[in-house]
Amino acid sequence: MPSRYLKRYVAETGKAAPKEAARLDSLFNRIAAGETLPPRGQQAVEAGLTAHSLNDAQENPAVYDYYQWVLAHCFTEQQVDEVPAKLIGMAFICANVFETDLPQPLTLNPWQITAMADFPLRHHRIIIVENNGVFAWLHRRHPEWPLIDQSGNDFNSAYVMLMRTLVKRGVHFTYLGDLDSRGIQIADHLLNELAIDPAEFTALQSPANVLKWVTLKGKSDSQRTRPVTVKAPVFQQELNSLTLVKKFVEQEQLITEYEELITAWLKLK
């Protein structure tokens, strides 16, 4: 049975709804119920779409247009309550890394980096998260966890400088990112910048887990699983899994797996 959103769209626009329209019914019902929603990329993945389907008009134009039309015509702006993923690009964004009474997450601009070099630390085991939205959602669900937002591929000098300083102070990092060619390349680049133990850096996103996740949860896309150049053998192994299976997995698909793995990793000494 077509939903009231779909019926109204067809009646008022005279257009056929996209074939994936029904997947958004649950999302629209949650908005109508006043629920706080995860970041938009997480919403898309939970609806069975790729992460950028609801915030990038080029990813899936028909779905994007339908989604935007329903938001504009069936809800007020105040009704849409979602955790934002728009974080400042030229900054160091973290949660529960430094010992401070300031509200978390903490956003440091490049001028503050030097002053943080010897600032007291709250934790010495920290998870780096590639995507803004996943960082924001994990922090919302687990406000006590020590997280750093890697901000996609934004390797600004201030970010790298502070990360290297934390390594010298004995901080242990592990990394979680998209399992596609570009995501593996980003992880490889950061590992090279920090020059730390590859085994610990991939303790959660291990080659075995990568193969399992792309096999069980992967989506087909030749462009996102194309061969690219990486330096670390561990990431070459993970890249080989993508190109062999020819499937990718987005971070938003792995929240449940992340929660179990992170909980256990943080308990290690």
UniProtKB/TrEMBL annotation:
One of its GO terms (cellular component) is chromosome. One of its GO terms (molecular function) is DNA binding. InterPro entries: DUF2399 (IPR024465), Spo11/TopoVI_A_sf (IPR036078). Residues 107-255 form the DUF2399 domain. It comes from the Bacteria. This is DUF2399 domain-containing protein. It comes from Levilactobacillus koreensis.
